[in-house]
Structure formats: structure tokens, C-alpha cells
Design brief:
Blueprint: H1 6-17, H2 26-40, H3 45-54, H4 67-82
Helix pairs in contact: 2-3, 3-4
């Protein structure tokens, strides 16, 4: 009996569910709100990442925040907000 290709099955399941946007859990929603507030106040990505790290918040992967991750999340959030409803 042929073994299933688990990686392929996981990829198909993920594609079926769609992307999991940042902020979909209560913890992430709180962090996203802080990011958006910081950006609205004119903070740089570095300042936002430093503030999150000072609060002890970690990214989804459990690592400290970096400007790249903060920037990517804010960019995707902006794109998600401007995307027309399907």
C-alpha cells in the first residue's frame, strides 16, 4: 500500500482554508492593534518593533519582533483593508 504524501495533503488543506491573516486570534489582535496605533501616531517600524519587544510580546513563531515582520504585517493589513469584498 502506497504511503500518502503528507506534505502534499497539508499543502492542499492549507490552500482550501485560505490564508490565516495576522490578528485572527485575541493575542494577535491586541498586538496588531498596537502596531496600527503606533503607525497612526507616526512611529517608525523600528520603534514599533522595539516597543513590542519591550512589552515581552513575541511573533507568531515565538521570536522577537523585527522591522521586517512588522512591516510585512502592516502592509498585508493595509492590502486586506483596501481589497473589495468578494
Amino acid at each position: 500500500m502506497k504511503q500518502p504524501d503528507w506534505k502534499e495533503l497539508a499543502t492542499r488543506a492549507k490552500a482550501k482554508r485560505g490564508p490565516k491573516f495576522y490578528g485572527s486570534t485575541p493575542r494577535e489582535a491586541k498586538i496588531l492593534k498596537a502596531m496600527l496605533a503606533g503607525r497612526a501616531a507616526g512611529c517608525t517600524l523600528t520603534q514599533i518593533a522595539d516597543a513590542l519587544n519591550a512589552q515581552g510580546a513575541v511573533s507568531r513563531s515565538g521570536k522577537p519582533w523585527s522591522i521586517g515582520v512588522v512591516g510585512r504585517i502592516l502592509t498585508r493589513e493595509a492590502e486586506r483593508e483596501t481589497k473589495p469584498a468578494a
